[in-house]
């Protein structure tokens, strides 16, 4: 099933195979801490469109069409450079991963209507905007109940590679902001994500990633962000697969590459403190002492009286979900914003960028206000669950 694409230059205002990044593995609690980078009128704005296709074997394949924008995973978490960066993937408003290439496999989606959103970001993870709107593309997909996946699936089979014989090199690069990025480069082999789960074609296919012997993801391109890892020694292995997922071999030996990664207790603890995700430590995010960069400050500095509010934001949360759905709220710089939050769950409302945390529980609504003195686009979420509620744009 192919889902009709909704392409946007700027966002609207207001199973064996296919084990991709877990939908919970790569939440990014600090993306909203980065002030947006506005594309000037004298610059050609990037364009993005997405297409989401159900995979014949398992999960969904996301294809991204880009123009006037270069994906630069080798520069991720580095300084901003005009016209390059990477992407962030959101499912139902929740950040699930970075995307470094124009193809990405989503292992699974819960039954029902799901919103898939891909946002362009700079190297330093700042969202890119045009006329104040995020440059992004959105699809809504209707997911049916789980089904068996037998057609074209040769994941337990082997296939002898043809000449010229492919090979594979593997490197793991520490991310400047925390975590690790995988760089797997095949030779004499074409990565063909557009043909995944289809018929075998000599010399083309994709790759599978294993961590400590467990399947972790399909790889459709040479760069991939590793999930958070516990302290200790980990074996990271990548092998070559034909389109139909059969393992490629030479003289009975798998074509693969293996790397060993040592994760210190400090590294593992830092990731856990920042939300259990390698992406929680992105540039400008939490440092080990709990402070953050990019202008983030103690929320107490912005506290204000509800009675002085210029604008009120009301949120109602039922079963951990926002009743009115994810949205974007714009407020003026320097205005006082009051918040009224009711919820049937026990959690905290976290307004990133301002370092504001307010408890909320069933029968105990949150009511507070603050002065919006830092311009930018900031995430507002339920802290414990990581559920993204809205984007707060201060401009």
Largest sheet: 5 strands, mixed
Number of helices: 1
> What is the rounded distance between the termini?
40 Å
Q: What best-fitting shape do the alpha-carbon axes yield?
A: elongated
Helix content: under 10%
What is the CA-based Rg, rounded? Answer: 22 Å
The portion of residues forming beta strands comes to over 45%
Structural class: mainly beta
Low-confidence stretches: 1-32, 148-152, 271-297
Task: Explain what you see.
This protein has 395 residues and is an all-beta fold. The chain has 1 helix and 32 strands. Strands 4, 5, 6, 8 and 11 form a 5-stranded mixed β-sheet that branches. Strands 15, 16, 17, 19 and 22 form a 5-stranded mixed β-sheet that branches. Strand 9 (128-130) and strand 10 (133-134) form a beta hairpin. The model is unreliable at 1-32, 148-152 and 271-297 (pLDDT under 50).
Describe the structure concisely for a colleague.
This protein is mainly beta.
Topology (elements, then pairings):
Blueprint: E1 37-38, E2 47-54, E3 60-67, E4 70-71, E5 84-91, E6 94-99, E7 103-106, E8 112-122, E9 128-130, E10 133-134, E11 136-143, E12 158-160, E13 167-174, E14 180-187, E15 190-191, E16 204-211, E17 214-219, E18 223-225, E19 232-242, E20 247-250, E21 253-254, E22 256-263, H1 265-273, E23 303-304, E24 311-318, E25 321-322, E26 327-331, E27 336-343, E28 347-351, E29 356-360, E30 366-371, E31 376-382, E32 388-394
């Amino acid at each position: 099933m192919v889902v009709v694409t909704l392409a946007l230059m700027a966002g609207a205002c207001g199973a064996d195979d296919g084990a991709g990044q877990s939908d919970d593995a790569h939440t990014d609690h600090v993306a909203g801490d980065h002030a947006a980078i506005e594309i000037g009128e004298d610059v050609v704005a990037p364009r993005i469109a997405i297409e989401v296709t159900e995979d014949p074997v398992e999960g969904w394949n996301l294809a991204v069409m880009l123009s006037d924008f270069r994906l630069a995973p080798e520069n991720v978490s580095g300084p901003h450079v005009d016209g390059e960066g990477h992407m962030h993937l959101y499912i139902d408003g929740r950040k699930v991963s970075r995307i470094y290439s124009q193809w990405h496999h989503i292992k699974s989606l819960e039954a029902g209507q799901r919103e898939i959103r891909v946002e362009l970001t700079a190297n330093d993870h700042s969202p890119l905007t045009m006329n104040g709107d995020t440059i992004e593309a959105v699809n809504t997909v209707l997911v049916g109940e789980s089904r068996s996946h037998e057609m074209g699936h040769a994941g337990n089979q082997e296939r002898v590679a043809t000449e010229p014989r492919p090979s594979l090199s593997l490197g793991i690069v520490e991310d400047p902001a925390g975590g690790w990025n995988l760089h797997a480069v095949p030779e004499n082999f074409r990565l063909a994500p557009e043909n995944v789960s289809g018929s075998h074609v000599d010399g083309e296919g994709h790759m599978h990633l294993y961590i400590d012997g467990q399947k972790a993801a399909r790889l459709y391109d040479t760069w991939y962000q590793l999930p958070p890892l516990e302290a200790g020694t980990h074996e990271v292995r990548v092998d070559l697969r034909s389109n139909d997922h059969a393992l490629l071999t030479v003289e009975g030996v798998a074509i693969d590459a293996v790397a060993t990664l040592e994760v210190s207790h400090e590294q593992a603890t830092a990731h856990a403190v920042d939300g259990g995700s390698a992406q929680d430590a992105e540039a400008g995010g939490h440092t080990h002492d709990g402070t953050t960069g990019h202008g983030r400050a103690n929320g107490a500095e912005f506290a204000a009286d509800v009675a002085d509010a210029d604008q009120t934001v009301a949120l109602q949360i039922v079963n951990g979900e926002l009743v009115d759905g994810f949205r974007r709220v714009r407020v003026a710089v320097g205005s006082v914003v009051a918040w009224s939050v009711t919820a049937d769950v026990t959690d905290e409302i976290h307004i990133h960028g301002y370092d504001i945390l307010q408890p909320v529980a069933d029968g105990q609504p949150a009511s507070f206000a603050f002065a919006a003195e830092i311009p930018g686009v900031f995430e507002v979420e339920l802290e414990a669950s990581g559920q993204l509620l809205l984007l707060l744009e201060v401009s």
